[in-house]
Amino acid sequence: MSSRQFLLIPGFMCDASLWSEVLPDLEKLGQIHFADLSQGDSVESMAQRILPDLPANCIVIGFSLGGYVARQLAWLTRNRQEGEGLTGLVLLNTSARASTADEIARNQQQIRMLTTYPYKGQTMTALRRALHPLRQDNMALLNHLQAMSLALGKEVFLRQLGIQRLDGHAQLADITCPAMVIASGNDQMRSMDEAEKLATGLPDAELHVVEDCGHMSVLERAPEVNRLLANWLVQRQL
Question: What homologous superfamily is domain 5-98+166-235 in, according to CATH?
Answer without folding.
Answer: Alpha/Beta hydrolase fold, catalytic domain (3.40.50.1820)
